[in-house]
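Suppose you are handed only two things: the residues of a chain and a line of SMILES describing zinc ion. What would the bound structure be? This form records exactly that question and the answer produced for it, so the two can be stored side by side and reused later without any lookup.

QUESTION INPUTS
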Amino acid sequence: MKVRRSFAPLIITLLLAFQAGSAPPWQKEEREERIAGFTLKSSRKETSIEARLASIPQPAMCQRFLLYLTEEPHIAGTERNYQLATYVRDKFKEFGLDEVSLVEYQVLLSYPKEIVIEMVEPKPYRATLREEGYFRDKDSYDSRVSLGFNAYSASGEVTAPLVYAHGGNPEDYDKLLEMGIDIKGKIAIVRYSMPYSYRGFKALTAQQRGAAGLLIYSDPADDGYMRGEVYPFGPWGPESHIQRGAIVYDFLIPGDPLTPGWASTKGARRIKPEESETLPKIISVPLSYQDARPLLENLAGTVAPAGWQGGLPFSYHTGPGPAKVHLKVEMDNKTRSIWNVIGRIKGNLFPEQTVILGNHRDAWVYGAVDPSSGTVSLLELARALGKLLQEGVRPQRSIILANWDAEEFTLTGSTEWGEEMVGELKRVAVAYLNVDSACSGSQFGASAVPSLKHLLPAIAKEVIDPNTGRTVYEVWKERVEKQGGESMVNTQLGSGSDYTVFLNFIGMPIVDMGFTGPYGVYHSQYDNFYWMSHFGDPNFRYMPTMSVIWGMAALRLANAEILPLDYASYGEEIAHYIKELSDEGKRMGKKTNLQHLQKGVERFISVARRMNTKVEEMLVSGVPPPGEKVNLINHCLMKVERNFTHREGIPGRPWYKHLIYAPRFTYAPEVLPGITEALREGDEARVRRQVELLAEALQRATITLEGVLEQLP
Ligand SMILES: [Zn+2]
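ANSWER OUTPUT
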C-alpha cells in the first residue's frame, strides 16, 4: 500500500481547527511538519512508523482471508462462527499480539424454525423465502443458507387481509387513516426504504398501530433493477434477494435482551423473555420482490399515494385485500454461546491507556461486505502491527483489537463486553475506532465525535486511493462537495454498529468508517465472495487501504504526546445544537430558557481554546513536559467525553447515558436527546431537569479541561 510522503497541507488544516488562524508567523515553518498531538521530532518518528505500517498490508493476503471467512454461512451462535473465532484468535497469536483471548457470553439468539407465508385469496401463492442460485457462483447453491427471517420476530399464526403501507413509518399509517384505512388486525406489507431506516422501528410502529403481522420487502426501486444492473451482472439486488435482519428494539437497550444493562456471563442473572422491553410482540418476515410481487399485484382499493409507487411494473394499490395472507412464524429462541476475540498490544510508556479497534465477525449468511471485509482489514492490520512489534516498534499506549460476535442480532458481543468492562474502560480507554463493513465500493466515509473529526481527513491526505491514484482525501472531499455536504466527517451519531456501547454507555470518543459503493445485496446470500470479487473490491485493494487508515488512526492516538482530542470543536458543535434547539422551541411557541446552557458551553469553548493554544505552543516548542505531567494531562483529556454522560441516562432509556448523542428509534442521530425529547413532548419540568443535567455535564467537562491547563507550562 502506498502512502504519500509529502505532508505539508495536512498540518495547516489541523492548526486552523485548533487555533482559528491566529498562528504567529514565526511558528509557521515548523508547524507545517507536525502531526496533531506530536512535537516535530516525534512527528518525524511517527511518520516513519506509519510509512512502514502502510507498506505491509497486501491485496493477496486480504483475498486469502476473505475467501476463508466467507467459505460458509456464519451466523452468530453457530459452530462455524465459533471456528472463525478460533481462526481469528490463532491469527492474532501467529502475528505476535501480546495477549489474545476468546471471551464467551451466553445470550438469547433467535433463529427460524418454521416460516409460512401464503396468499389464500384471491388466488393461492406460497412464498418461497429462498434465494435462487446462479451457476457461476457455488455459494448461491449452498443448502445451509438460512430462510429469509427477522430475528426476534414473535412466534404465532394469523390470517388477515393485506395492506400496503409504504415505508411502515408513523406518517405512512397516518396517511392510510386519512384515506380511511386502519391497519388494526391486518397484515402490513412495507418497503425497506433507502435511505436506511432501522427495520426494528418498522416493527415497533406496526405493533403500536395494532397490525396483525408485518412483511418487509425489498422494492426494486430501492435496491434492485431501478438502481442499476443486478447480480450476477451488477451490484444491485436480484429478484429473489432477501434482506434478513433483527427487529429487536435495541434503540431502547442494545445487547442481550435478557440481561439489559449487565453482562451475559455464565451464570449471570437473566430476566424472563416476557419481561424484556426490547423483544417485539409482532410477527415479522422479510421478503424478496419476487415473493412480494404476487401479493402487491393482488391489492385493490385506492391507488397508492404519490411517492408510494415502487419499481414493480404495475400500479401499486393500498388494499385492504382482496389479497388475504396466512402468516405462520415459529422461532427457535434460545440462550446460546457467542465469542468475542480480544487481542492486546501492550504499550511501552503508558500501558494502562488503551486505544480500542473493533469489527464484528458474525454475518447473516456469508457476509463478504458485512462484516467480513472489515474482519479482513482487522486481520491484515493485526499482521502489520505484529510485524512492527517484531521490528522493535511498540506503541506507547496499548492497542486492543476486538472481533465482536452477534452484532447482527442486537450489537450483542460488543455491548456485553462493554457492560462487563465499563469500570476499567472508564479509567483507561482513549477512544474506540469501529469498522463494520470495510468496503462495498470505493467511496470513503466517516463519522466521529467532534473531538476526533480532524483525525481521518488528516490521515486520508497521506493515503493513496487505489482506483484514482489521488489521495483518499481529495476523492472524498470532491464527492462530499458534489453532494453539497457541509463537512467531510459526520459528527451526528446515531446507532447501527458496535460503537454504540462505547459512546452511549461508557462515554468514549468514537470513530466509525468504511468505503461504500453501489450495494443492493445487503444481508442477502449474494453478499458473498463472488459479489466482492466482481463488484465491491475486485482487486482487493480497498480492504488493505482500510487496514492502513485504521492502523494510522490507532498509532496516532497511541503515540501522540498529547492526545489529539479537540474540545473547542466539540464545544462549538454543542453550541450549534443548543442554538438549533432554542430556535425549534421558539418555532413551537415554547418558553425554553437555554441561556444558562449557552453560557456554560461558551465557558467550555473558551477554556478548550486556551488549552488548545497552550498545547500547540508547547508542542511547537518541541519540549513537552516530563512524562509524569503528560500522563496527567492525557488522563484529564480522556475524562472529558465521560463527563458528557450521566448515570440516570435519557428519560425512558436509562441505558443511553450520553447527554449529547443518542439514536432515534430509526437509528438516525438525535442531538441533546434528553432536552429534545422533553421539548417535543411539551414536558416543561423535564426540559428544565435535562437542561440542568447538561449544564452540570458542561461544568464538569470545563473543570476537567482546567485541570489540563493547570498542568501545562
Ligand atoms: Zn455489520
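WHAT STANDS OUT: Residues 520 and 569 are 36 Å apart (CA to CA). Residues 360, 370-371, 407, 436-437 surround zinc ion (CB under 6 Å).
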